[in-house]
Automatic annotation (TrEMBL):
Organism whose genome encodes this protein: Psychrobacter arcticus (strain DSM 17307 / VKM B-2377 / 273-4)
Job of this protein: Iron-storage protein, whose ferroxidase center binds Fe(2+), oxidizes it using dioxygen to Fe(3+), and participates in the subsequent Fe(3+) oxide mineral core formation within the central cavity of the BFR protein shell.
InterPro entries given in the database record: Bacterioferritin, Ferritin-like, Ferritin-like_diiron, Ferritin-like_SF, Ferritin_DPS_dom
Membership in a protein family: Belongs to the bacterioferritin family.
Heme listed as a keyword: yes
Name this protein carries in UniProt: Bacterioferritin
Residue numbers binding heme b: 52
Length: 157
């Protein structure tokens, strides 16, 4: 199948954001685990795996359209040095991804590629869900204080 070059480019741009997210969330997970924040580690790790699955779907779609998935064009990761910054960095990336995914969805609608559009809508929904979770964590930190929030993220062992 020969796909539209603009759509392939847009899918590759979304793929690039997802690849950044895999690495950023995985690193934040392992930093959190190192600090003994098992709950936060688990949440970041699960999101990293979700991004990996979405990247796999994007790669399959790009290949189906006759394109070449770009796994080399990484953008900047936002790496944190403390818990509030981890949440903030991940939220910044999710907002950046949201904009890129939304633009790609619009392009797919214009080009009438509804299969790619549906894939992107699924990614957008996952993006919105994770963004909501991150915003909830920010609210919790404000409401209970950073020390209590961090304590709540530790393992009970």
């Amino acid at each position: 199948m020969k796909g539209d070059k603009e759509i392939i480019r847009a899918l590759n741009k979304v793929l690039g954001q997802s690849l950044i997210a895999i690495n950023q969330y995985f690193l934040h997970a392992r930093i959190a685990r190192h600090w003994g924040l098992e709950s936060l580690n688990e949440s970041f790790y699960k999101q990293s795996i979700a991004e990996m699955k979405w990247s796999d779907d994007l790669i399959a779609r790009i290949l189906l359209l006759g394109g070449l998935p770009n796994l080399q064009d990484y953008g900047k990761m936002f790496i944190a040095e403390d818990v509030p910054e981890m949440i903030d960095c991940n939220l910044r990336l999710e907002k950046q991804k949201f904009s890129i995914i939304t633009d790609a969805i619009t392009l797919c609608e214009t080009q009438q590629d509804y299969v790619s559009r549906q894939l992107l809508v699924t990614l957008k929904e996952g993006n919105e869900e994770y963004q909501d979770w991150l915003e909830t964590q920010e609210d919790l930190m404000k409401d209970v204080g950073i020390e209590n929030y961090i304590q709540s993220q530790m393992n009970d062992d």
